[in-house]
């Protein structure tokens, strides 16, 4: 709870830093030196964004951007990066099933999880050794003897097997605990906690098979993606929407003043009319007097939260499109409606595409 709350505020700060840096980079494109300074700020901001993502992952509050994924292709795309991570002293072997089923996951979170597990294997292998990553289609039956808590069905099995020192039974019981590390000051203890959070969000399960001096195998089971049954799981819209020039009025509702001003700046630059409100009460007053086409509302606000506001707006102003922004969100819609999500901190291009997509979408 504490971690998620801190991450919410931190995401708001990062949103302002990254947003204005993005605007600076556009203005400074003609000045190589100043442009390089802005790039350094952007790089540092994105590192902080990654850290926040890790905190939210083990707190299991990380908003997911799920879509159908072929893990074989993902491994192929990242093989060179993984080889460099492991260094030349460790041989990386990838064994994949040819016709692997798709899964519905957040690809970035899976890549992060694999990198974290590779780091652990690298530190467990003292000199030279080998890490084998394999994929397999797996049908789990009710009477399986794997002692898994997930229901029977079709799963993709992803395993990482190293030739390292292995894990003692005492340590094995603690490896998923946040901040537990065997690497002293060099480790944060967030790596496997993040892996665990990702697996939980993916409705899968993780197993660790290891003995001291005999290497380690980490196995992840992820449910197979079924287009007919799981169509709703994929919330990411990858369509590229044109930034058409129109004079629609957007209402921005957020209790963070700097973030409101940033969003107003971005939208105004793209020919939108913008109204701002610091809370739901002010937003409702604006809606009663202005012709609002779309409302962008933060989830966590004093008084009426973003979902409660969205529910009321849907009832009283059904013509208004609604976009919900959240950096940390354990609350859900109370009215059963599904609102499009914008995850903080976001790039201006993501903001513009989301808004354009909703405005152009016909009911």
SS summary, helix count: 11
Distance between the termini: 37 Å
Helix % is 40-55%
C-alpha Rg, in Å?
23 Å
Strand order of the largest sheet: 2-4-5-7-6
Low-confidence stretches: 234-244
Global outline: globular
- Biggest β-sheet: count, sense, barrel? 5 strands, mixed
Structural class of the helix and strand makeup? alpha/beta
Number of strands: 12
Helix and strand sequence? HHEHEEHEEHHEEHEHEHEHEEH
Strand content: 15-25%
Q: State mean pLDDT (0 to 100 scale).
A: 82
Question: How are the SSEs placed, and which strands pair?
Answer:
Elements: H1 2-27, H2 32-58, E1 67-69, H3 71-86, E2 90-95, E3 103-105, H4 107-124, E4 129-140, E5 153-162, H5 169-172, H6 191-201, E6 205-210, E7 216-223, H7 227-230, E8 249-253, H8 257-269, E9 273-277, H9 280-289, E10 294-298, H10 306-316, E11 321-326, E12 340-343, H11 348-360
Parallel strand pairs: 2-4, 8-9, 8-10, 10-11, 11-12
Antiparallel strand pairs: 1-3, 4-5, 5-7, 6-7
Helix pairs in contact: 1-2, 1-8, 2-6, 3-4, 4-6
Description:
The structure is a single chain. The protein is an alpha/beta fold. The chain is built from 11 helices and 12 strands. The strands form 3 sheets. Strands 2-4-5-7-6 form a 5-stranded mixed β-sheet, with helices on one face. β10, α10 and β11 form a beta-alpha-beta unit. About 3% of the residues have low confidence.
Key terms:
single chain; 11 helices; 5-stranded parallel beta sheet; 363 residues; 5-stranded mixed beta sheet; alpha/beta
